[in-house]
Write a structure and sequence with these properties.
Length: 242
C-alpha cells in the first residue's frame, strides 16, 4: 500500500503579507495637533495620493467608490463641483462626531480639505479612457494609489479622517463589529448616492472588494520602506476613508 501525503502549504514571506495594523514609523506624531515638517509633508502627500486615486476611479467611468458616488450624486443635484460636495459631506460627517465624542486632529481637518482638492484637480485634468481594458486598469491603479496614500497618512498618527472617526465612534458606542458598521454605512451611502444620480458600476464592486487589501499592502509597503514595527493597539485600527 502507498500512503498519500497531504500537500504542504507554501509559507508566504512576511513582505508579501498585507499589514493588519498601522506600523510605527519614525515620522509618527505623538500628538494629534502638532507634527514636525516631515510628518506634515507625509500627511499631505498621503492625502493627495488618496484623492488622486479617487479621481482615477471617477474618470474610469466604471463606477465610483461609495462616498464618491454620494458626492457625485450631490454634485449633479446641486450644480456644485464634486470637490466641493466631497468637502461638504466630510464637514457634515464631522458633525456626527459630536454625540460620539470623537476627538479630531490635524489630520482630520487636512483629510477633509486635501482629499477634496486633489479629487477636484484629478477629475478636471485626468483623461477619461474609452477602451474597456484601460478603464479597468485605471480603476485598479486608483485603488492601489488610495492604498498607498492611506499607508502614508495613517502612519502620521495625526487623527482619523471624518468618515473613519464616525465608523469607529459608532463601533464603540454600540458594540457592533467594526466591519459590520463599515458595511452598513457604505451600503447606505451607495444607495443614497445612486438615488441622487451617482455612478454605480463594476468599479464600485472592485472598490468594495479590493480597497481593504489595498490599504493593507499600502501600510505594509510604507512600513517596509520606513523599517517600522507594527502596533498592537486596537486604537490604531486602519479604518479606511473611502
Amino acid at each position: 500500500m502507498t500512503s498519500e501525503r497531504s500537500p504542504r502549504s507554501i509559507p508566504v514571506p512576511s513582505w508579501l503579507r498585507p499589514a493588519k495594523t498601522v506600523p510605527i514609523t519614525r515620522w509618527r506624531s505623538e500628538r494629534r495637533w502638532t507634527g514636525n515638517p516631515g510628518t506634515i509633508a507625509i500627511l499631505i502627500l498621503g492625502l493627495w495620493l488618496f484623492g488622486t486615486g479617487e479621481a482615477l476611479v471617477v474618470v474610469s467611468d466604471l463606477g465610483n467608490g461609495p462616498w464618491t458616488v454620494m458626492a457625485q450624486g450631490l454634485s449633479l443635484r446641486t450644480g456644485l463641483s464634486i470637490g466641493w460636495t466631497t468637502f461638504i459631506i466630510s464637514v457634515s460627517v464631522l458633525l456626527l462626531w459630536i454625540p460620539l465624542r470623537e476627538k479630531p486632529g490635524l489630520g482630520t481637518i487636512a483629510n477633509a480639505v486635501v482629499i477634496a482638492l486633489a479629487l477636484q484637480v484629478g477629475v478636471t485634468f485626468l483623461p477619461h479612457p474609452e477602451i474597456a481594458a484601460v478603464q479597468l486598469l485605471t480603476v485598479i491603479a486608483g485603488i492601489a494609489l488610495i492604498g498607498l496614500g492611506s499607508g502614508l497618512y495613517l502612519t502620521t498618527n495625526l487623527g482619523p479622517g471624518p468618515r473613519d472617526g464616525w465608523m469607529t465612534g459608532v463601533h464603540r458606542k454600540t458594540g457592533w463589529p467594526i466591519y459590520g458598521v463599515r458595511l452598513g454605512i457604505e451600503v447606505s451611502v451607495v444607495i443614497i448616492g445612486w438615488l441622487l444620480g451617482g455612478t454605480v458600476g463594476i468599479g464600485t464592486v472592485l472598490f468594495a472588494v479590493l480597497i481593504g487589501p489595498s490599504v493593507g499592502y499600502g501600510l505594509m509597503a510604507v512600513g517596509a520602506l520606513a523599517g517600522a514595527k507594527t502596533t498592537t493597539s486596537s486604537d490604531d485600527d486602519p479604518g479606511l476613508e473611502a
